[in-house]
Design a protein that fits this description.
elongated, mainly alpha, HD_GYP_dom, two-stranded antiparallel sheet, about 425 residues
Amino acid sequence: MEEVPARARAYVVAVVLLALLCLLPLPVTRTPWWALALLAVLYAACEHVVRRRFGGPFYPVLLTGAFLLPPPAAALVPLPAALFSPVSPLGQRAAGVRRLWRAAQPALAVWGAAQVHWALGGRDAVVASDFPFALLPAGGAVLAFCLVLTALDGGIRAAALGIPLRRAWRGLLSRALAPVAVHGLAGLMMAVLWRSPYGPVAALLVLLPMCVSWWVFAQYHRERAAHRATIRALVQAVDIKDGYTRGHSERVGRASAMIARELGMDDERVEVLRFAGILHDVGKLGVPTRLLRKEGPLTPEERRIIELHPEHGHEMVRGISFLDEARAAILHHHERLDGSGYPYGLAGAQIPECARVVAVADAFDAMTSTRSYRRARPVEAAVSELERCAGAQFDPRMVTALVHALRRCGWHPAVTADEPSYGTAPKEQIPGTGTPR
């Protein structure tokens, strides 16, 4: 997004000012400047390699700085990496805000970790290589580091996306604690070796096994990226085959994610629901094109063929391991609460929760999108229709979640057919909502 919300800009400015305060007073005479410069360069190099090659943050060097340097000096270690590394081309203002955020957030986190480490006597334990007593202040520093990172992350999510603070913070600490603890252990080993007679060169050797483990981690994420590319290719194929719904799948994915967030689902499940929304109509690849493009009502036999598309879609994504729940949504997104849907006529709680989410998102986008045969309904009219059908066709909880999300974030539908290539006769409508098959 080129424009950063005003609340998010104000939040970033406040965090930057707080980070600047943490640099004062900088103990000039007691700061080992050569060590600070070496750690800053090393962190910048690691950030460049890890983010470019593997993706994700890399904290061992930062935590080493927290274990070795006074807190104001430790806060300087991440600054060169953030201020001079390239950022995504999001527009000049957005790029500047993002760069300041990437400088201030880790600076505050490493300052907090250093404060806790020094307060617990960790500096003397590191110098004396006093194990296992060095683990206690190091553990406190890692916990402080995680708490600051997750607190700031939750704040920026709340400011930028309008998510309530409690939801913005939910799950962040639990997901960050284990990986940061591993980074903290590596940082402690580096700090102890740094203070040993072997010096900084020996400390650098600790990064080798970390890089190997990061490479394994990156391979996993590359596999997920390959799956995402497959998903996008499937969606593009559906858009080409059934052109009147061009872009519909992406928007259903977006609306599904909005509902999932409003229901308080964690980020991983929100992502699965987004994929489910994107792929909900992928089974149309198994439906003859002539039926998808047919003008006017379908015969009973043709409708039975159309109604096989959820089962086709379920089979198509069977081999994608991280889409377990999404498969259920693809299979059951045309079921109705009163049992009159398809393919199996499930009713009420028999319909998986994910499918009830996608059903509402699908109907909402269909009603608010301009098609070749009709104009889009206003958002208010679509919401009224969903509320009217809640309890019979749609889960009222999902409808309410979408309404709340729309009030907070808004909705920007787009034209989904570039040209009226299939004539002007309307496609057969689904009773209740007026949504297309």
